[in-house]
Amino acid sequence: MFHIICRSVAALLLVATPVTLSAQTWIPIVAHTPGLEGSVWRTDVTVLNTCPVDAAVELVLHTADGEVVSAFEIAAGHQQLFEDVVGHLVDGDLVGPLEIRSDIELSSSSRTYDRAGDGTYGQGLDSVTANDGLAAGQSVSLQQLRQDEHFRSNIGVLNMGSETAVVEITLFDRLGSEVGSYNFRVAPGSTAQDNRPFSQRFGREDISAGWAVVTVESGAGVWPYASVVDGRTGDPTTVLPRAMASCPIDIADRLASIDGMTSLELTTGHDGYRFFLLFFDQPVDHNDPQSLTFSQYMTLLHWSETAPMIFETLGYTNGLRDRATELTRLLGANQLAVEHRFFGSSDPGAADIEYLTIEQAAADHHAIAEVMKTIYDGIWISSGASKGGMTAIFHRRFYPEDVDATVPYVAPISFGAPDDRYVTFLENVGTSQCRNDLAVFQRQVLIRRQPMVDRITAFAANYGLSFDRIGGAEVALESAAVEIPFTFWQYSGESFCSRIPAISASDDAIFDFFLMIVPIWWTADSMLDLFDSYYFQAQHQLGYPNLSTANLADLLQTDWVSLEEGLVPHGVTPPTWDPASMIDIADWVATEGSELLFIYGENDTWTAGAFDLGGATDSSVFTVSGGTHGSAIADLSQSDRTEVYETLERWTGVSPSKADPALDERIPRGRLMILDPAVPSLIGTVGN
Fold this sequence. Notes:
Blueprint: H1 2-5, E1 23-34, E2 40-48, E3 55-63, E4 66-74, E5 79-82, H2 85-89, E6 94-102, E7 107-114, E8 139-147, E9 151-159, E10 165-172, E11 178-186, E12 190-195, H3 197-202, E13 207-218, E14 222-230, E15 236-239, E16 242-243, H4 251-256, E17 261-266, E18 274-283, E19 293-302, E20 309-313, H5 326-331, E21 334-338, H6 358-372, E22 380-385, H7 387-398, E23 405-409, H8 421-426, H9 432-447, H10 449-463, H11 473-492, H12 507-517, H13 525-542, H14 580-592, E24 597-601, E25 620-624, H15 638-652, E26 673-675, E27 683-685
Parallel strand pairs: 20-21, 20-22, 22-23, 24-25
Antiparallel strand pairs: 1-2, 1-6, 2-5, 2-7, 3-4, 3-6, 8-13, 8-16, 9-12, 9-14, 10-11, 10-13, 14-15, 17-18, 18-19, 19-21, 26-27
């Protein structure tokens, strides 16, 4: 089943989405207007960012004629003062409510005063109870403090508890620079006021928009407040305590906080995204958490905690790195790609391969979903191509609530070891002319046995390959020759029919086309070693296609090895075929499946094993006309693409990007090997 291994993945440019201003607060009324008895009303507003990240903010003044909007940023730790905020937003007199929108939680306050009179309105203090007070470890902010030639600020602390309270008071200027910090003791059942701390403690008389953080070190029932006094009139204005903003935790810190998770952040060219390599400890046997463990390798493209998550369940090694799958691009989503157990760097090594089952792999994915959903609480869609798509269905069957929907690409299900449906498919696919030409070519490969063996031997010497496991160059030749029709229709298809060499073609032309259709390195020891865990699965639970040799019966001379059945790892006894596993999976899809969207290629050999939806709800199958094993949503007809987009939008609430499919940059199909420099032990394939 080499064919599943090489499913192409598009290297796509991700499209950044606008910042979402989801935090909203209101100031009931702000004014720039004349009043009774010659008064002139003005409102000052401060917006404070206590978080360690910059904030995107909009001031929205609601008027009878609509909204007046001003957008800006507030740097981390800064407080922005808007003196006469209405005059900042509009010309002329106006009174109305002010809405403040931001992408993170901020604190806001206002002060309305008579600019023309002899003084401001007097101070007001609402009553509070012990339940309103703070306990040890809690903090509040006091904002819009001033200490300059016109105003002075005092900080008071009420202790409603029965023990002496100690608070730490830290003062800041409007730029977030710390002015100073000190402890303040308050006796039980009393109020203490620290007058003019900016000037009396730290000698600052230039504070135009200061703020403070009050943290209770010990005690309970503690309620801080402040007053700003107009130096001209002596009238005070109350400053009430504000809860500290719930600041976002950096995604790197959130990932690192997961028990058993190790993360490494690398750079990525996708604007707005962050890229991580993740390693998660898993038990080899989920039925015995005390069993041996292994580190499962994953890659994460992070956009935001609330965006959809594409849960890419790979069937083999993880060679994706920061490549974005089609669904990730369409939905502007996060992407978590998980390497399969017993492949690549996720190989438990000495562990018994009996734990390589669809049930154990599904438990791997369940454990990952559980911990990652503590961070990513948006819609989850599992997906994968070929064996990766099969893996997504297996996970969904055993843990159907882990994800909201599943989109498998070119994913087959086989009911035999071998399964004869693939032979029947190949007898009818394409045109009779193309099938006949291919059959003649297939025979020519073996008729010209010695020239082909000579070229295989030279190729092996040139690239340092060996064919010991399969039985030598002649066995490799026959094993690959039997594959020709299967692989031709899987990867090449109708567009290659005209390129099939004629019977009169040279040995070089025959070998070159043969090498293009079935790369001979698929039979080499290094490749068999890399994928022999898959062959164990195929012989045990997954099944594999049958290959017809009727066209070649008189030319086969060796005990050739089927590349669909393959060779299990060294020292491992071939397992007993379990037909019940795939029957159970098919039955679940047909009777309990929901939110499933399958993509197939019409001429792809693996489509012979396409899933049957049966009575699955809110599910559908789409087939690319003439498509191969590289078929994708972008290859569907316009009407089918529209239907897929509508389904995805209904499932996720996100309108898929309608980027021109021709702009998709596809990675070449085939056994393209890569070495991930960040994971020295990882050798993967570009594919799933």
